[in-house]
C-alpha cells in the first residue's frame, strides 16, 4: 500500500503524534480538526466555521475539495448545539452531502465545542 502524509501550514498544526491527513489508495483520511488557538472565542457557529476552513485547507493541499468527502464525523461538546453546527456544516456541503454521524462527547481537545474528521476519495 502506498501512503502519503499530507501537511499544510494553512490548517492547525497537530497537537500530538498524528498527521493532519493520510492519503492511501485513493482515500484521504483527515484527522479530527478543531478551531485551534481560536477555540472558545466567539459562537459555536464561529468555531464550526473555523473547523471546516481547516478541513478545506487540508483538502486543497490534497488537490481535493468538499465534493470528494464521502464520510464525516462530528463530535460536539453539547448536542444542544446540533442545529447551529448543522447549519454551518450545510453551507460547506451544498450538494450531495457525505454520509455522517454526530456524537456528543464529554470533552474535546483544548476544551473545543466541536471537532470534525472526514474521509475523502479521489480516483487514482
What is this entry, summarized?
This protein is an alpha+beta fold and 124 residues long. The protein has a single domain, classed as 60s Ribosomal Protein L30, Chain: A (2-Layer Sandwich), CATH 3.30.1330. The protein is built from 2 helices and 6 strands, in the order βββαβαββ.
Please write out the topology.
Layout: E1 3-6, E2 21-24, E3 27-33, H1 44-61, E4 69-76, H2 82-92, E5 99-104, E6 114-121
Parallel strand pairs: 4-5
Antiparallel strand pairs: 1-2, 2-3, 3-6, 4-6
Helix pairs in contact: 1-2
Q: What does this entry look like structurally?
A:
The protein is an alpha+beta fold and 124 residues long. The protein has a single domain (3-121), classed as RutC-like (60s Ribosomal Protein L30, Chain: A, 2-Layer Sandwich), CATH 3.30.1330.40. It contains 2 helices and 6 strands. It has helices at 44-61, 82-92; strands at 3-6, 21-24, 27-33, 69-76, 99-104, 114-121. The protein has a 6-stranded mixed β-sheet, with helices on one face. Helix 1 (44-61) runs parallel beside helix 2. The longest helix has 18 residues, at 44-61. It is globular. The two termini are 13 Å apart. The model has no long low-confidence stretch (mean pLDDT 95).
Amino acid at each position: 500500500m502506498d501512503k502519503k502524509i499530507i501537511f499544510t501550514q494553512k490548517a492547525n498544526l497537530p497537537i500530538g503524534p498524528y498527521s493532519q491527513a493520510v492519503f492511501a489508495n485513493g482515500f484521504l483520511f483527515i484527522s479530527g480538526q478543531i478551531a485551534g488557538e481560536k477555540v472558545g472565542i466567539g459562537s459555536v457557529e464561529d468555531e464550526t466555521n473555523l473547523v471546516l476552513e481547516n478541513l478545506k485547507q487540508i483538502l486543497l493541499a490534497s488537490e481535493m475539495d468538499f465534493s470528494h468527502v464521502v464520510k464525516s464525523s462530528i463530535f460536539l461538546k453539547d448536542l444542544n448545539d446540533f442545529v447551529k453546527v448543522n447549519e454551518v456544516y450545510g453551507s460547506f456541503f451544498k450538494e450531495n452531502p457525505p454520509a455522517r454521524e454526530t456524537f456528543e462527547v464529554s470533552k474535546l481537545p483544548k476544551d473545543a465545542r466541536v471537532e470534525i474528521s472526514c474521509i475523502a476519495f479521489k480516483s487514482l
